[in-house]
Amino acid sequence: MSNIFFNSWQHCRAKVLFTAFILINLGAIAQNITVSGTVSAKEDSSPLPGANVLAKQLNIGVVTDFDGNYSITVPQGTVLEFSYAGLLSENVKANSQTINVSLENNPVTLNETVVIGYGVQKKKEVTGAVVQVKAEDIQSFVTADISSALEGQIAGVSVSSQNGEPGSSPGILIRGVSSLTGSNDPLYVVDGVPL
Predict the structure, then answer these.
(1) How far does Cα 16 stand from its chain's mean position?
(2) Mean pLDDT taken over the chain
(3) Which of 53, 58, 79, 103 is most buried, with most CB under 10 Å away?
(4) What b-and-e string marks burial along 64-85, b requiring 16 or more CB atoms within 10 Å of the CB?
(5) What do you get for the CA distance between the two ends of the chain, in Å?
(6) Burial 102-117 (b: 16+ CB within 10 A, else e)
(7) How many CB atoms lie within 10 A of CB 24?
(8) DSSP helix, strand, coil percent of the chain (3-state; round to 5)
(9) CA distance 159 to 51
(10) For the segment 96-128, what is each residue's pLDDT rounded down to a tens digit?
């Protein structure tokens, strides 16, 4: 009799454990949510394409599209980290299906990041290659053209008269730039328009 009771108890216990196992797995599956939204800049509310959305505990993440939109499936309560170059990161718990984030400027890294035509570089890596002359620095010069106003303003740039004729444009040579077949003249871009 005790043997029958013991067998039925083991059978019952096995059923309870199996049911608990199924319920736990179903609960884990049911807790996953798909979070979507937009990542934008707080300063002007413009969308941020290429912003990172990372689920820190899971080591998974996505990148926002051209309009700053993203979508990621994570367990409910996961901490999502939103980051973008030059802006402060923000951490948000995934408790709802729509999370829109506005990232603030990071005043410390604004001076340390240089955005170039094909990516982003740290300023310390391109210090000798990137030079900026502000309009305020050359406004006081009275010259016939912009080339003459640049004379003596930038290290490594030589501005000199080519033939001495009145009204002729001076030649500009940049240290380290030379070409056998092309022109050695620099490309001027003013307000996004090549001149």
Answers:
(1) 51
(2) 75
(3) 53
(4) beeebebebebeeebebebbbe
(5) 101
(6) ebeeeeeeeeeebeee
(7) 10
(8) 25, 30, 45
(9) 42
(10) 888 999 998 876 654 555 556 556 666 656 555
How high is the pLDDT of residue 102? 92
For 19, 94, 149, 172, the CA distances from 141, given in Å and listed in that order, are 85, 58, 6, 18
pLDDT digits (tens, 9 = 90+) for 134-193: 778 777 777 777 777 777 777 777 777 777 777 777 777 777 667 777 777 777 677 777
Residue type, position 45, single letter: S
> Residue 120: what are its φ and ψ, rounded to 5°?
-125, 130
Helix (H) or strand (E) holding 20: helix 2-30
| Contact residues for 61 (Cβ-Cβ < 8 A; gap 6+) | 52, 53, 54, 55, 72
Higher pLDDT pick, 5 / 23: 23
pLDDT at 136: 80
Residue in 168, 172, 194 with CA at minimum distance from that of residue 183 = 172
